[in-house]
Amino acid sequence: MNDLKFVKPDRIWLRDHAMLNESWVQQRIAEDPSILGLGDLVLKDKERRQPRAGRLDLLLQDAESNRRFEVEVQLGKTDESHIIRTIEYWDIERKRYPQYEHCAVIVAEDISSRFLNVIV
What we know:
28% of the residues lie in helices and 32% in strands. By secondary structure, it is α+β, with helices and mostly antiparallel strands.
């Protein structure tokens, strides 16, 4: 027990990092969706094309229920466009696959208090 050494972590912003980017974050979540703390999830799709929209970063599904999670990753501070995009992808998926329960998820480095009442 005496060999333990306390190391104070340095905070880094992935948005400004040369190597750790949004794709890296997506890959970490895809490899281990449990890091989101949403239960026992499995990866259904990555970079899923949305009709007349962009690409959904990750589509996850609860392993034991009909619940799906539409996940958008944003580095840096949350902004209006990512929130709208997340809701748009969630809406598209829930209309295409009504047999599932759908939950919109945004993963960001910083969610300002301005948006908490909208996204919680």
